Amino acid sequence: MDLVEKPLRERSLEVLEWPKVKEKLAELATSSLGKEFCERLPFWEDETAVSRKLQETTELKRVLEKEDPVPMGGIHDLRSILERGKKGAILEPRELLAVSDTLRASSRLKAYFYQRRELYSLLFRLAQPLADLRGLERTINSCFDAGGELSDEASPVLRHLRREVRLLHQEIKDRLTSFLNSPAYVHFLQEHYYTLRENRYVILVKAEARSKIPGIVHDTSLSGATVFIEPQDLVELNNQLKMAELEVEREIYRILRELSSLVVDHILEISSNLEILGDLDLTYSKARLSQLLEGCTPQLSSRSRVDLLSARHPLMVLSQKEVVPNGIRLGQGGQALIVTGPNAGGKTIALKTLGLCALMVKAGLHIPAAPGSEMPLFSEVYADIGDQQSIESDLSTFSAHLLQILEVLRCAGPSTLVLLDEIATATDPDEGAALAQAILERLVGQGALTMATTHYGRLKALASQNPLFVNAGLEFYRADLRPTYRLILGTPGRSFGMEIARRLGLPAEVYERAKELLGGEQEGLNRLLEDLERRRLELADEQKALARVREEADTLREEYETRLTKLREEREKILSRSLQEMTVLLTEGRRQINAVLEEVKAENRLEKAREAKKALVRLEDEAREGIRMARKELAPSLPSLEEGFAPCRQGETVQVIPLGQKGVLLDDPAQTSKVRVQVGSIQVTVGAEELRPYPGASRRTKDQGRGGGGAREQGSRGAEGQRSGGAEERMSKGAGRRGSGTPPPSTPAPLSPELRAEDAGAGLQMPTSENSCDLRGLRIDEALDKAERFLDRAMLSQFSCIYLIHGHGTGALRRSLRHYLEGSPYVRRFRPGQPEEGGDGVTLVELQV
Q: By the number of CB atoms within 10 A of the CB, which of 270, 464, 575, 672 ranks highest?
């Protein structure tokens, strides 16, 4: 059928090369069923359906990029097989195996997407309706061996009959071997082997000796020198073999008939599965096509607006040609796009790119454009492209184009896209330009989005006369007369016909005469267009320069941020070294203080104790001065320890510097200089300046630290208690002293009202970091030594009471410690802690004051 005789829609699809897109899509299918689904790819008219199909393609593309391979193998087009079965035909083994393979593929795909249903919900819903026919698949599969033949396991009768056949074959072969080796017949044989003729065993006998061996002649050689004789002694055995083989064939027929009947019984479920499998294979092909095109899901515009970003012609991309991406906009400030430029500059490619992208969206395909592209769902896409001259219909090029355009005018409306290539050419230029303008104005008036290519200067002026028209030109380098194929929106293009003719060898006098005939007005318009193009190129160069400056600024900013990060890391290292130096100084100070305390204990003199007290103060002053000097020496340009870290906040994990442990801050340092910290199962009171944020702990906002403080504070205590308990259990395992799983002592809380009144009279104090000593995790000798030193310091500090935290464990440390306290001259009395103070895991000691 001639192109002009086909319906308008079909002609438009052909000139846009839509069938080629479907062919490329079909090549990516994994089965003949999928290929057919691709070849009859439908257009969707409902926006919801289009959106769903696009998202299905997006999900499967993501599966291909991130998941294990999709098990698409084993799908067969069973429709002709099912049709034969429905008519009562016995299906052949290969047909039954095709059914089995397809059912197995259904089960695999359903399981594959079920396992990923949370990530790919649309594909899961697409595969979920697949009927579970694993029983039928196993039944068919169990009847065939690896070679596709009906196996002996298909039925007991078949197994028995085949055994009989094998035994008969063996018996006949044994007889033949004996016959061939018999001295009585060896001189009559032409060859020393046997063969088959008409499916019966025979031997090869010399023609002149055929009367010497009784039997039935089945054949002779071409030369006549050899006669194929079935010996008389084997006739009955051959007859039995034939009957046995007929029984086997009857049993095979019965089995195939039963299997065929099973398939027909499930014909509806199988047919439904085929539709789903074909749709899945189609979606798989769409996803692979999107990968090849580097496509994206466009936004479906509800405002009849086209905004293609870096769009490329799909067939050119698939043929691996170099493609220049272009932006195409319609319906936003202009309803008709008038594209001008030189021949072979890319006008028709741009036209087809828009048309194919519109059709791909209707078919649920990703488009070859950048993310963020926008495309409406057109009800129809009409195109008039190329030479449609028809000798059979006696139509000229102009007439054929005009008939097509007239039909477009009758059908175009608000939801249609019209693409016209070289509108109203092949006639008088003035008449053609006027006719083209009238046609375009009519299309715009009917609400159709229109893109047209032309060389008519009259159409370039439309944009300045009517805001519904927008110019676009194909870029062209005049210096070397080379097209760049870049579409420039907002600026008309020149045809450069005279320049190209001059470049191709047009004589100079002919060129000058043509310029003279062109007229001053047209020459002025060309100069204006050249000036606009020059200004546009200058602006483009400035934009490129600005982009380079921005890129350099971004690079410098990244380099600065990298250096700043390194400086911060170096600062942290310096501060860490400073803290280590402080620790060494404090350790040396403690050693000297302990030596003085030992001397005081040995002499037991009040004057010596006073001197020790003064020595202690002096050593503390020296330690502070040493720390200050260490800071100054190691980090002279850095802020102090307190200034170098962000302030601690209520509810976050902090490091208690004097204890060298971490804990949860319970009070707001902004409200008080002394704050409570939950260290493991113990609450201690320390100065706010003795805290720093714990490295690696997530910072909390001020509101998080205060708002809802009760619940969050309790949660912090519980979590920290669990961590402390875990650490205590690990230490006890290392020391081998406490049983695993023993809970840590509960948090020492303020005394009960009755005990508080009694202990207040005794001058007891609340537990703080200064009057508490944690002995957990130490061996008994280490714990007693630490407790003794702590008692010495407590006496010098004139504490009225102290808290010794030893935990529960096996009780050995608790008993040894209390035995030691009974003989200490410092101790007035001691008792276990109350439940709210930590219970029997804490011993409260009153000192001699």
A: 270
Burial of 375 (0-12, 13-18, 19+ CB in 10 A): buried
Instruction: Give the confidence band of 151 by pLDDT, cuts at 50, 70, 90.
Output: very high
The distance between the two most distant Cα atoms of the chain, rounded to a whole number of Å, is 148
**What are the contacts of 63-71 at 24+ separation with CB within 8 A?**
63/116, 63/120, 63/123, 63/287, 64/287, 64/288, 64/291, 65/291, 67/116, 70/109, 70/112, 70/284, 71/105, 71/108, 71/109, 71/112
Q: Which token pair is 839?
A: 């219970």
The larger pLDDT score, comparing residue 767 to residue 157, is at 157
Alpha-carbon distances of 663 from 85, 153, 457, 490, 771, rounded to whole Å:
78, 73, 82, 67, 17
Instruction: Please give the pLDDT value at position 389.
Output: 43
Positive/negative CA dihedral, 114, 120, 125, 131:
negative
CB 110 within 8 A of CB 127: yes
For residue 637, the model assigns a pLDDT of: 41
Write down the residue that tokens 């023993």 correspond to. Answer: 742
State yes or no: pLDDT of 504 exceeds 80: no
- d(Cα 121, Cα 111) in Å, to the nearest integer? 13
Report the Cα 449 to chain-centroid distance in Å. 37
- Looking at per-residue pLDDT, the higher value among 45 and 716 belongs to 45
Q: Quick one: CA dihedral 519, 525, 528, 534, positive or negative?
A: negative
- Residue 810: its pLDDT value, please? 85
Would you say how long the chain is, in residues?
849
271: Cβ contacts below 8 Å, ≥ 6 apart: 79, 82
Which residue from 776, 778, 771 is spatially nearest to 847, judged by alpha carbons?
771
Query: Which of 660, 655, 629 minimizes the C-alpha distance to 642?
Result: 655
So what's the pLDDT on residue 7? Answer: 87
Phi–psi pair at 304, nearest 5 degrees: 50, 50
Q: What is the CA radius of gyration of the chain?
A: 48
Confidence of residue 304 (pLDDT cuts 50, 70, 90): confident
Backbone phi, psi, residue 337, to 5°: -110, 120
Q: Yes or no: say if 579 and 638 are a contact pair by the CB < 8 Å rule.
A: no
Per-residue CA distances from 32 to 22, 24, 74, 95, 841 (Å): 14, 14, 11, 15, 78
Please give the pLDDT value at position 839. Answer: 85
Provide CB contacts within 8 A for 199, sequence distance 6+: 242, 245
Question: H-helix or E-strand containing 383?
Answer: strand 380-384
The helix/strand/coil state of 456 is coil
- For 745-808, give the DSSP string: PPPP-PPPHHHHHHHHHTT-----SSSEEE-TT--HHHHHHHHHHHHHHHHHTT-SEEEEE--S
